[in-house]
Amino acid sequence: MFKKEMIAMLLAGGQGSRLGVLTAKVAKPAVAFGGKYRIIDFPLSNCINSGIDTVGVLTQYQPLRLNTHIGIGIPWDLDRNVGGVSILPPYEKSSNSEWYTGTANAIYQNLNYMETYNPDYVLILSGDHIYKMDYEVMLDFHKANKADVTIAAMPVPIEEASRFGIVVADGDGKIRDFEEKPEKPSSNLASMGIYIFSWPVLREALIKLKDQPNCDFGKHVIPYCHQKGDRLFAYEYNGYWKDVGTLSSYWEANMELIDIIPEFNLYEEFWKIYTNSANIPPQYIAEQGVVDRCIISNGSEIYGEVHNSVLGGSVVVGKGSVVRDSIIMQGVTIGENCVIEKAIIAEDTVVGKGAVIGIGSEVPNKMKPNIYSGGLATIGENSVIPEGVQIGKNTAVSGVTSAEDYPGGVLESGETLIKAGDRV
Asked: Fewer beta carbons under 10 A from the terminal one: N or C of the chain?
């Protein structure tokens, strides 16, 4: 029996449907961020920087890239004989097999894993936020208050509070009440979906609620513990925290990284963000190439102009092309004389020469106006954009497209073009 003071359970099974074509083939925590990173690198790095060396990563939706990225945990120093990182997909049990149906149900299905370490505390995290946080400080707060459950919470503007689960706490941080997405919030402290449970309390709650359909922490476990009279505390966090769940917030968070003094610094020595980065040569900027206010990852070759953009590894920008205010993920090839404005182009896409992306007027997207918005043009991974076509704003393109798919050579603003089948 190994004894660990605190283990972390990282929920990374989400589809992230509000990211549209970006998550058609990959789980949201595996989506690229800031050039060479993936979203899951942030909570994983927080764990090892906080001294937590046992992390269970719960996967479900499209787990392949996530599994490959995490591997045995070497980049995060999580390749341990005891503990380390474990990938925990849903599996067939003797009596039944079932998918994870809610956040708490996923944790319940991994009781055996947690019992192996007999922890004093369990830290529950979600794999889709960008932030730096020392969980050890939160654990000290939990112990000092003799808490059963501690919820990390951060102040949000009161006019936005109805989008979140809200905690109402007294002066000492003791939680008096919960409000799940209230119309008229009584506080502006929003739950961040980060919880520390004393292990016996978590175990009892999960077993008690095991038959609850779609059992969830915010909706079921926390209210259950509250009603039972457990000691619940809110740990107030005031650092940078970004939910990159929509295309606009994802684009904004990437663009904030290139501010002269970014609010969120990826390169602090004392709190490193680790990632599984391929061994590729440095970036190459040709004599006629222009780069201004960008993050350019290794292996990229710039023959044209790139302004105010974030580029992943091994991106090629052809001669005479101009890229502005865009996120270009790894392995994308942009032909010569293209113009790309305010676009998100996912991995391994090929843009034919002379193509123009992100022009025209801002018209709401016809199919999914709440997803493809903010004036962005979004292109899914492994797509092909033919030579010379024009793509408007609030658009989505995915798949191998050909000139016939663009009437008059144009995909108007607000249109969606999804082609089945993959590039051969």
From this structure: C
